[in-house]
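Researcher: Please translate sequence to structure tokens.
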Amino acid sequence: MSKTKMKNRLSVALVLLTGALSFTGCTTFQIPVQSFRQQFAGVDMNSLQQVRVSGPYGMPISYLANVGRIPIIKCVDSNNKEVTLQNSPSIEVRFTHNGKRNIMYFDRLFIKDSAVIGSPSTFMLGLMNVIPLRDITKIEVQDGHKNFHYVDRR
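Model: Translation complete:
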């Protein structure tokens, strides 16, 4: 095979590989702050449900989650088109506030005293972040495609 044909085939393979990888990446969506407030209206510590989650290492983890009140997450894509995501233990949220960013898991979020409270870790259950709602300027959400799945919801 000539060098030119080999280069052409490698170029085509590279283009196909790049295209395939772009479809498997994590797409980031936004939740407008007002929409977030509406979706979380009434979601407080008392509305959380006990769930059991299977993780990538096979060890089940139990924690309180907002799955009952928010089964579907309403967000928008980069073209401001409405998109819905199913709430799951692998959904990550990035809050921008006061020039900082905090990442937490969506199903671990709740509202208390005009603040968002949530966990940045699935394994460290006591680790919680608190962000005043009034300070949040941007909310981004994506499915991190981590191997976490609900096993039991009570």
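Researcher: Any highlights?
Model: DSSP finds two helices and twelve strands in the chain.
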